[in-house]
Amino acid sequence: MSTDTRSPLRRNHGVRGRTPRTLAVLSVAVLAIATALSTAGPAASAPDAGVSSVSSPDADFYLPPSPLPEGAPGKILRSERFPLALALPGVDGQVPANATRIMYRSADTHGTPTAVTGTYLEPTLPWNGPGPRPLIAVAPGTQGQGDQCAPSKGFAELVHYNPPLDGWFSYETSTAYSLLARGMAVVMTDYHGLGTPAMHDYVNRLAEAHAVLDSIRAAEALTGTTRPSAIFGYSQGGGAAAAAAELQRSYAPELDVRGTYAGAPPADLRAAMASPAVNGAVPGVIGGTAPGLLGYALNGFAADYPEVRPVIDAALNPAGKTMAADVADTCIAETVIRTMFRPVTLFTTGGRTPAEIVDSSPELTAVVDQQRIGRLTPNAPVLIAGSTNDDVVPYPQVRQLAADWCAHGATVQLEQTTWLPPLLPSTGTGHILEFLAATASAHDWLAQRLAGKPAPSNCSALP
């Protein structure tokens, strides 16, 4: 059994032939459940090595073979068909798709081979666009840091609850079903360390980009076909999608990626830390709205970069150390419930802000700087979206990503949402509303790129 760098304080979790209109109903049902659940509302001590506890019925699937088999990135290490939790019977299988859980070779932030899991969904509806059926790589938004939060588990369970607060729903199911309704195949990565032994390295540019690009390779290996593809991601997924877009040229040049949607991407963590308040709320991608997200990030940094462990240990007070250890084994709902409305400075020594902590350490500054997206050039057109009322991912650094890519000569369309009302500041509502408002048009944009239509660009006058 593989070892990892998880904290020994981690807690164990127990077990727990239609038309497009039909698929639309399924997708709306998924989204309604997700919205209802979302509104119901260890890095600290340099984690010791230990064995991850995975206690779902599919636990063995998520334990990578040791040693890891040789092969290229994207090689299928393991696969198994499974029934979707939300589906209808059809002539050719389940509607909206036949689902396969996959484990594939990828590379961590240091380029070391690793195993990553995910889900491949083959739609039962036909593709009516030009050319072969396309593939959309969905980079999921923040799910949490516990192994039970892996999106591939959500497709089979739909809803997970472990008392008292560990409730979880894979809201990205609605994203996948919307794409499947268009006849597009979908592959969704779990990311490095989510589901599999290892710490999930939240907002890590390289690890996330590798997992996304290798998921496309894995889907092609599984089906034995190469095809046009595109990438979709929002929030954490927006950052992962953006990182994949600019790394594809060097990491996976053989892939036929036609376009990328990056919604609310956390492209510059340091800038996000210094962002002014939005409607009275400090954006929470790195410790504002929900300080538990800072715990996710620091846990990942400590696991990936040993040189910053002493810095992180010194930066968190006893409450912060407990918080970081707790969130390492929770999903996003529990993390938010436990930490929302609590200033991040309650968890730091001397009441320092995340920006002050980073700026006080050259080592941590270097690590945060490595996560900066926008210094390379995407191979294909990109649609970036953000809201001025986003209380999780601040808009100014979203716009800066567009400006950076435009300066490199990329084809970029930046969509700024200003009409969404500033509802319930400090709750993440502004962030959720942007996701709901932008998804359908993002899928339309991807369909146009896959159809070969010229991509628009507003680089000359970014909003």
TrEMBL record:
Question: Keyword Hydrolase on this protein?
Answer: yes
Molecular-function GO terms, alphabetical? triacylglycerol lipase activity
Signal peptide (from-to): none
Q: What is this protein called?
A: Alpha-beta hydrolase superfamily lysophospholipase
Instruction: Note the superkingdom of the native organism.
Output: Bacteria
Gene3D superfamilies under this entry?
A: 1.10.260.130, alpha/beta hydrolase
Listed GO biological process terms: lipid catabolic process
Q: Which UniProt keywords apply?
A: Hydrolase
Answer yes or no on keyword Manganese: no
Stored Pfam families: LIP
